[in-house]
Design goal:
Number of helices of chain A: 16
CATH architecture of the largest domain in chain A: 3-Layer(aba) Sandwich
Helix content of chain A: 25-40%
Number of strands of chain A: 23
Low-confidence stretches of chain A: 1-9
Structural class of chain A: alpha/beta
CATH topology of the largest domain in chain A: Aldehyde Dehydrogenase, Chain A, domain 1
Radius of gyration of chain A: 24 Å
Largest interface: A-B, 75 and 74 residues
Oligomer: homodimer
Mean pLDDT of chain A: 96
Distance between the termini of chain A: 58 Å
Number of domains of chain A: 2
Chain lengths: ~525, ~525
Amino acid sequence: MRNKGFLITEAVEPVLIGGGFRPASFSETFQAYNPATGEKLPPLYPVSSWRDLELALKESHQLVPELALTSPEKRARFLSLYADLLEKQRLEIISRAYLETALPAEARLNQSEFPRLINQLRQAAAACEDRSWCQATIDTKLNIRSKYGPLGGVVVIFSPNNFPLAFNAVGGSDLVSAIATGHPVIGKAHPGHPGTTKLMAECLLEALRGSGLPLSTVQMLYHFSSDDGFRLVSQPEVAAVAFTGSRPSGLKLKEAADRAGKLFYGEMSSVNPVFFLPDLIREKAGFLASELFASCSSGSGQFCTKPGLAIFIDDENSRIFLRHLRQVYAEPPSGYLLSPAVQHNLAEAIARLKEAGAELLIGGQPLPGPGFRFEPTLLAISGEQFLKEPAAFQTEAFGTLAVAILVKEASEMIKVAENLEGNLTAAIYYSSSSTADEKLYRQLEPVVRLKVGRLLNNKMPTGVAVSPAMHHGGPYPATNHPGFTSVGIPASFLRLAARHCYDNVSDEYLPEELRAKNPTGRMWRLVDGTWTTEDI
Amino acid sequence: MRNKGFLITEAVEPVLIGGGFRPASFSETFQAYNPATGEKLPPLYPVSSWRDLELALKESHQLVPELALTSPEKRARFLSLYADLLEKQRLEIISRAYLETALPAEARLNQSEFPRLINQLRQAAAACEDRSWCQATIDTKLNIRSKYGPLGGVVVIFSPNNFPLAFNAVGGSDLVSAIATGHPVIGKAHPGHPGTTKLMAECLLEALRGSGLPLSTVQMLYHFSSDDGFRLVSQPEVAAVAFTGSRPSGLKLKEAADRAGKLFYGEMSSVNPVFFLPDLIREKAGFLASELFASCSSGSGQFCTKPGLAIFIDDENSRIFLRHLRQVYAEPPSGYLLSPAVQHNLAEAIARLKEAGAELLIGGQPLPGPGFRFEPTLLAISGEQFLKEPAAFQTEAFGTLAVAILVKEASEMIKVAENLEGNLTAAIYYSSSSTADEKLYRQLEPVVRLKVGRLLNNKMPTGVAVSPAMHHGGPYPATNHPGFTSVGIPASFLRLAARHCYDNVSDEYLPEELRAKNPTGRMWRLVDGTWTTEDI
């Protein structure tokens, strides 16, 4: 650590390491932006140097065995108490998140994302107490028993810019899964909303105190260099890495984690194609255009499930659909982009799309300040163009941006589907009042099915319900493992779980979940092929 | 392809590509060994050139959508029929396997491994028909439904030398999982038992024909270069790679697969530590020595679950234990090593262990031919030595070889456990007739638990039952994902499964497993939090 760092320590926010906020070790600082004004916000936050990461690792590592043995009840108590404490700070947290992200304070932050944050914590607390998530599987004849349990190492969480609350590194989906499964956590705040993260970390610390979990269970750093990030995920103490962010950053981090033999879960990019079948376009062109725009512009187009490709057959009706689309995309933007970087990436993406041959139908320009704004943008290409260079049209870019792919005929639509990369979602809109779209649906669906995690019908992909049946994941490069989800409790717990098998172990040495007596009386267990809540 | 390859084509075994055996494209050939005589066995097998791999990829790739849609009944029919046909060829297959591996024909191949092969196929057929493996999860209120389904690409299987039948690339555990989950397969035979693999591939082809699955569902190649292997697993057509073999080969293949964003499942190495607690040693030193030797020498020490480390406290009783161990390890070897390479690796491993400071107690030398034999070998080190350089004593080597670690006291035993790498298994032997070992057990177990997939009590790790509760996997570097198992049906299916979510999809467009009506009337589904076999 350089002296320079020490000198300005007092003016710089402390980091959460070892059970309390302490001065960071750093040589650089940063500030958040107010996206609505373009101004930098006080205070200064540290870009931690390796010394902070090293300390965070040490503090986390020594808790690995203890946290693996904490009771589900204690973990649940923490998760519930954390939700309670966040609710008490609701206004303060939302206000700061609004300042740092300019996401709609009422409709988005207060009515949608904050409740989701709380809901996740409470669902996780319930799933913890219920214990069924560990899928206890018992062969009574051979006395072999397995269940999911902790990995035996530290979980590192890298959180994204677009969900300051529900995917926050110290309170979002990954944190919840890591705690529920018994791991210490190093959370890297997103530098776009450090103040929000600090407020949440304060509640978290109080919840640790109140629930009896060790105070060092979670370390929180605001920022560190990419190189320190690669170094962090390669350390022996680390068991798994959860990353939500851009594809280039995700792939670099994945490379470092892979090389060191660490579990890596990256949610990296998705263009979320929407297929509009012809008979429905004939019926509802205007409605569909509004529906697409509403989803595409939601959160100013900064959702990982934003519909970025609209695929339909080039015919008379679709020309009407296109006219409607031009109309709705001509609306002025209703919100702000999260940062100058997002604005810059969007402009670059549009330039690349145009260079690859896409026609700009509407929008395409940043808007003057104050604040980071951009015109809603619609581009169009033919199916033939797409098929010549499919990768060129499948780069995710945040912002109200969609590319219409006009295919000649049904068979070309299927070819487009065959040339899709892995995505989080795809939607197929078809007419349910006639059967005219059925034949194409039945040809298209099996192709689309294998390309995505979640397949929707007549529904836009934004809005990812926290349900046990939800899947928020998909084939590479949307994520790097299509078997895991980051949303949906308790399924998301499994990303951070090892399978623990016990062979010939007597009842008193088994974990409660695998003993003869059902530990809660209502935990589901697969006993000799039958799911049951009974004792054995 | 060089002309040279064409010229000797007729004398060289054909490969299975595109639904039939066809001349290979190659420029080199190889032969199998008879490990009992050291002689090379006819015929010649091709080391396929890239052209074969390219063809195999093309044939497999075009079946991806079709196989994803095949009915579970058809997949099950194939698996059952394949088992029937293998049983008809039982003697021929076992004879060839005996010739190529010199594993005990009766006790191992006929009474153990062949029944296991058949058992796996029949269990997989039953699991396919049952469908519960796909874990259909249904939220009726939100109409969101998920289940496991195929990955949407080709599965490549690299099989090991030590299980010519039950882990064979075209009939073993991975093949069974890949077919049950609806994938085309490219299987690379292990070059140690090409003739066995060919006999199995012939049955497989007949079973494909008889069951109505496409004939090109499985391609089988005998051998190809490492570089072609890396290239193969990086191709866009490939979705997942299952590898069972050595750590150096596995890590190289993993690197290639990781870089291309492919799922990789490697079972790479394990030394399977066995902890003997002091009171049990006092009671049963002689019995324990025999038990360890029996497991360590089983299959001539060529099991991935071979106990390779024996850890116990250095006291009066353990000196008696050591005397017994010296006695049992002084027995002449009862079998053969699989190849000159295994013999060479074993000699090298012993040299490295000695160089790192291990004391050779007994054995340590290859035996003169004919055949590949080696003296049972026992080495010893102190706990202090181990803790100075833990990695040096944790390299897997096939052969009847164990390293005894004599620790000073209980706390040092726990430190040894803390310094273990990830393993497939660990066993703790304790006295169940007294409570003297209990305290140490309770300190040791939580440490060991997080280091291994399967934890055994008073039982040796060799012998991996095919049970739904079995786990054959473990933390890195034993495997690269501790959440997945390669043995145990249907759990092993999940390595090759993506999660498929349906959001707002009406009944007629849902896969059968997610419709209102339970497709089999007995398939388990998690409906609104309750496991049930009922219709919705």
